[in-house]
From TrEMBL:
Species assigned in the record: Pseudomarimonas arenosa
Keywords of this entry: Signal
Signal peptide positions on this chain: 1-19
Region feature (Disordered): 17-36, 41-72
Protein name: Porin
């Protein structure tokens, strides 16, 4: 532990010194979705959007960055489709483009195929195959995590192979597929829970087709639809479910749950309009029974198995977004099924507003939502029987991101407040008002090859702290190593995270991409 303390002290000194370093261009995130943002037949006019947390400017004229998570667990020859996987923050596109001839329907040597060497569609030219393989990216990763609080043990020991394929098939038809095979070795907590020497899990994060006609685009398939601007809570971000199978240790790329969805985007003079329809809703993914994060009896209820032809479970909604210079505002309304099915399958309405206001190197964020109604467990005085009651709920968040002098150094803070409007004293598991304060600082060093971040979350009225240290180092164009430290500090036994008070872990990951 002495060496760990010395290392953390050195990191603190490095952070302070880095504030004097000039900012360099941000490095591409190796975990980002490399073709997100590709537009098929894009609108003629694209307005600049609000800058992100690092001060980089986004393009609101592009369709929302898609990304969906469809988990398919298989054991031997059995395949179980589970539409589970958010990431909480959308990855940034790394600018990869695929520009080339339309090769759909061209067979080697068939009608329409090139007949001269050098023609990329010529049957004997390797460039025909190379054009298609250019759209493929492969990521190999291995991860270990160790719980250093008693009882000490290895928690994660897993490897993965991820294939990403994204390519225009025709002039106005685009395909995206993102699939990943996870291998959980015998001492990984999920393999132990299933009593298997090797637990295999196939996760298809995205599988959809996109087409555009003028200023309107359509996406059909398994997707996620991230809404909202909050980094500390799900305020309006209620469309796509969450993956809570591993508490807050879940990786960014697996933190959202996909579901079958039709999404339409229209870019007009009045703003950016988005509408969605979900014929079969997905639900939050909770810990496997007997796994490291299981709470006996808490996750025994099975997720609803909805029929595709049941209108009572259809989800739909719309959002309007308008940019004003570097700022933007969004209004949204939706009819949803609560992603948290542990109380009951609850249908509710959501009305929300988000705003980003950029002032020089400061970005202000605000988000509010009204949800009618939500379901809660209740226990009347003197009774031993749980009942379910309904109440409207109001959620909000207010925060900022600040980059002094335009440097890579970023300070962020946010206050999250949730209130049960029709409060009843017999509601259990939460109070009328709940608060969270989120603070973070991040910086990049050595030509942006090294990224360091510190994050702390303070919650009331059931006092708890969650601290995270995250780092990544780009060894070369293909290799990245990650080190992460998680330190929960629970102060109140009534807190929902109290059972995880001893989950103090460090994680090491290595990733190779080509």
């Amino acid at each position: 532990m002495k060496s760990v303390a010395v290392s953390l002290l050195a990191l603190g000194v490095t952070f302070g010194a880095s504030a004097q370093m000039p900012k360099s261009e941000p490095a591409a995130d190796p975990d980002s979705d490399f073709l997100e943002g590709v537009v098929i037949d894009p609108p003629a006019e694209i307005q600049p959007g609000a800058p992100d947390a690092r001060g980089d400017q986004a393009l609101s004229g592009l369709p929302p960055e898609p990304g969906s998570d469809t988990n398919v667990d298989f054991d031997e020859l059995e395949i179980d489709i589970d539409s589970n996987t958010d990431w909480d923050h959308e990855p940034s596109p790394d600018g990869a483009d695929f520009i080339g001839p339309d090769l759909v329907g061209l067979e080697p040597g068939g009608p329409g195929a090139g007949t001269e060497e050098g023609d990329p569609t010529w049957a004997g030219d390797d460039s025909w195959l190379a054009t298609w393989l250019d759209a493929l990216r492969v990521s190999l990763k291995h991860e270990n995590s160790y719980k250093f609080a008693s009882p000490k043990r290895v928690v994660n020991n897993r490897s993965s192979v991820r294939l990403e394929y994204a390519k225009p098939l025709t002039s106005n038809l685009y395909l995206r597929l993102d699939t990943k095979l996870n291998l959980h070795w015998s001492n990984d907590h999920r393999a132990r829970a299933k009593d298997e020497d090797l637990f295999r899990e196939l996760v298809t994060r995205e599988a959809y087709l996109q087409s555009s006609f003028g200023d309107t685009s359509f996406r059909l398939g398994y997707q996620i639809l991230p809404w909202g601007v909050s980094e500390g809570g799900a305020i309006t971000d209620e469309v796509s479910p969450r993956n809570s199978a591993e508490f807050f240790f879940i990786s960014l790329e697996e933190s959202r749950v996909g579901q079958p969805m039709l999404v339409t985007d229209h870019f007009g003079d009045s703003g950016h309009w988005t509408a969605f329809f979900v014929p079969r809703p997905g639900y939050n993914k909770y810990p496997d029974r007997g796994s490291e994060y299981d709470i006996p009896g808490a996750f025994d209820r099975r997720a609803p198995d909805d029929d595709w032809d049941n209108p009572g479970t259809y989800e739909f909604g719309a959002r309007w977004k308008r940019t004003f210079g570097k700022s933007d505002i969004s209004l949204m309304a939706a009819r949803l099924i609560d992603n948290d099915y542990l109380v009951r399958q609850q249908r509710f309405r959501m009305f929300g507003l988000t705003a980003n206001v950029a002032i020089d190197n400061l970005l202000l964020r605000a988000e509010v939502a009204l949800k009618q109604p939500r379901a809660y467990f209740a226990l009347a005085a003197g009774s031993s029987e749980l009942t379910i009651v309904e109440s409207d709920q109001f959620d909000s968040s207010f925060g900022f991101d600040y980059s002094p002098g335009g440097r890579a150094l970023v300070y962020s803070a946010e206050v999250v407040w949730s209130r049960v409007l029709d409060w009843r004293s017999d509601i259990i598991g939460r109070e009328r008002d709940e608060y969270s304060l989120v603070g973070s600082v991040s910086n990049r060093f050595f030509n942006d090859d090294l990224t360091l971040s510190l994050l702390s979350i303070y919650s009331e009225p059931y006092t708890s702290f969650q601290h995270k240290f995250l780092s990544s180092y780009l060894i070369d164009d293909n290799s990245t190593i990650y080190f992460e430290l998680f330190f929960p500090d629970e102060r109140d036994q009534r807190s929902g995270t109290w059972p995880y008070r001893d989950q103090k872990q460090f994680v090491v990951r290595y990733q190779y991409q080509f």
